Amino acid sequence: MEFHFNFREIATATMVLFAVIDILGSIPIIIGLRKKVGHIQSEKASIVSAVIMVAFLFVGEEILKLIGIDVYSFAVAGAFIIFFLAIEMILGISLYREEEAESASIVPIAFPLIAGAGTLTAILSLRAEYHVENIIVAIIANTIFVYLVLKSSKRIEKVLGKNGLSVIRKVFGVILLAIAVKLFATNINQLF
Predict the structure, then answer these.
(1) Domain-located, residue 138
(2) Is residue 5 classed exposed, middle or buried when 0-12, 13-18 and 19+ CB atoms within 10 A define those classes?
(3) Single pTM value for the model
(4) 128 contacts 60 by C-beta, under 8 angstroms
(5) In the structure, what pLDDT confidence band is assigned to residue 138 with cuts at 50, 70 and 90?
(6) Per-residue pLDDT reduced to its tens digit, 39-66
(7) Fewest CB within 10 A of the end CB: N or C in the chain?
(8) How far from the centroid of its chain's Cα atoms is residue 144's Cα?
């Protein structure tokens, strides 16, 4: 088995995934979840999201084909999820309701916040252009960064304060809304 490690491919894939995962933009959501459930299992969330991303890299398209969903439908569904997350952030309302949990790790942090529809769609797009090993390195790099952000969310909250978090939440909500609209617009035409 021959490896094709390429720094340019790794850097590009890392930046694409970093932008799509947008863990910095998710800090207000993470802090809100931590207040609701009390504790975020950073290690578990990071490992599970990495496993989901790597697994989807290898079998994602086949799984979608198996259940009769094309990548474009998946991306449009992802756009709706991102849209509603953005609306929550901008308007300060809560659309996502879940039964009380003791901690947050797999749902909703590992999936859909980190390894959500947008991330998984990006992974399928990268697979078409880059070697698998370079994408895996990019996934690992992003997982490490995600872990560091999850682990230091309390410190980040203290530094930013309540007003800083509110401003960041609204700004990133608008950015997330724009990503949702772009994801929807690029993929809706392919469905018809």
Answers:
(1) yes
(2) exposed
(3) 0.74
(4) no
(5) very high
(6) 889 999 999 999 999 999 999 889 888 9
(7) N
(8) 14
Specify if 51 maps to a domain. Answer: yes
Token pair of 7 as six digits = 């720094």
Work out the burial of residue 183: count CB atoms within 10 Å of its CB; fewer than 13 is exposed, 13-18 middle, 19 or more buried: buried
- Report phi then psi at 40, rounded to 5: -115, 125
What average pLDDT does the chain have?
84
Residue 162 CA from chain centroid, whole number = 24
Kindly state the average pLDDT of the residues 125-131. Answer: 85
Tell me how many domains the chain contains: 1
The residues that bridge with 43 in the sheet, in sequence order, are none
- Domain with 45, as residue range(s), is 7-189
- Using alpha carbons only, give the angle 140, 172, 159 rounded to the nearest 5 degrees: 80
Average of pLDDT values for 101-130? Answer: 81
Local structure of residue 110 (DSSP, 8 states)? I
d(CA 12, CA 89): 28
Which pLDDT tens digit goes with each residue over 66-101? 999 887 787 787 778 778 877 887 888 877 655 555
Residues contacting residue 158 through CB under 8 Å, at least 6 positions apart? none
In a domain, 77, yes or no: yes
Q: Around Cβ 4, how many Cβ atoms within 10 Å?
A: 10
For residue 103, what are its two tokens?
């901690």
Is there a domain that residue 178 lies in?
Answer: yes
